[in-house]
Write a structure and sequence with these properties.
Layout: H1 6-13, E1 19-24, H2 26-29, H3 42-51, E2 56-59, H4 61-67, E3 76-80, E4 82-83, E5 96-97, H5 101-106, E6 111-118, H6 123-140, E7 144-150, H7 161-173, E8 178-181, H8 187-195, E9 201-204, H9 212-224, E10 229-232, H10 234-237, H11 242-253
Parallel strand pairs: 1-2, 1-10, 2-3, 3-6, 6-7, 7-8, 8-9, 9-10
Antiparallel strand pairs: 4-5
Bound molecules: 1,6-di-O-phosphono-beta-D-fructofuranose.
1,6-di-O-phosphono-beta-D-fructofuranose (FBP) binds next to helix 2, strand 7, strand 10 and helix 10.
Length: 256
């Protein structure tokens, strides 16, 4: 398991160069209280991912332990190494290590994910932890996915296109194999984000879009801009008809 080749792992995550992942770290980041009407059992979410045709899922280690035996062989398991809850002060933008790369490898991970809030007062701390994680990823041939999210007082909000463009570029520069970031909200600005990020770029789904059509429109535009795929959470598993919707996203992705 420890010698699994990095190339092989990358191919499992980026199938034919594209990726459709389900993100499910929300029960930590936002808490189950944020989704009172949704069954948040990890196996249930994993089933949506598999049935809807995703090629992988991002989970914390405890949830991964519960679902790993239900996942098909060619389905990628990505373990989130860092965490923060919404129980802390809103201004404390930091994620800390809650899992090691070694534990992720033991759980059969095909990649690990690490969040950095670029521009936060705690940026330096996350950078230091990132360098330790990256070292171990290199030793174990483990792909490293950076969730590059701006939290800069210099920009109006975390969806500012320039801040996202900067954050994604930093992810590529510091050695992430894949970068995931927010969609900027329009094709023109997102084209710049992709152009400036020289590693494959995946897009987060973000908070539930007003309508399914709005959501699918963003999916389409992100792909026209050059995104290599998605890591979707709330816009899939928090919506009615999750499996069907995921299939629609997959069908759009297959056209690019
Ligand atoms: P979503 O598709 O629900 O946005 O999930 C992607 C994700 O990166 C999650 O992994 C994470 O919990 C969430 O977004 C963080 O979003 P925010 O920064 O808006 O809290």
């Amino acid at each position: 398991m420890f010698n699994k080749n990095k190339k092989e792992r990358m191919k499992k995550i980026l199938k034919d160069g594209k990726s459709l992942l389900i993100a499910f770290d929300h029960a930590v980041e936002h808490g189950p209280i944020a989704y009172p009407n949704i069954d948040l059992h990890p196996v249930k979410i994993a089933k949506i991912a598999v049935d809807g045709g995703a090629n992988g899922i991002i989970l914390h280690s405890g949830a991964a332990r519960i679902v790993k035996d239900y996942l098909p062989k060619d389905f990628a398991l990505i373990i989130k190494l860092t965490a923060r809850t919404s129980l802390v002060n809103d201004k404390s933008h930091i994620q800390s290590l809650v899992t090691t790369v070694d534990e992720a490898a033991l759980l059969g991970a095909d990649a690990v994910a690490f969040t950095i809030y670029l521009g936060s007062d705690m940026e330096h701390h996350m950078f230091e932890q990132f360098s330790q994680v990256k070292k171990r990823c290199i030793e174990l041939g483990m792909p490293l996915i950076g969730f590059m999210y701006p939290r800069s007082p210099k920009y109006k909000n975390k969806y500012d296109a320039k801040a996202i463009e900067y954050a994604a570029r930093v992810g590529a520069e510091i050695g992430c194999d894949i970068v995931k970031t927010y969609y900027t909200g329009n094709r023109e600005t997102f084209t710049k984000v992709v152009k400036n990020c020289f590693v494959p770029l995946l897009v987060a789904g973000g908070p539930e879009a007003k309508t399914k059509e709005n959501f699918l429109n963003n999916i389409n535009n992100a792909l026209i801009a050059g995104a290599r795929g998605f890591a979707l959470g709330r816009n899939i598993w928090a919506r009615e008809g999750s499996v069907e919707l995921l299939k629609e996203v997959k069908s759009i992705l297959s056209r690019y």
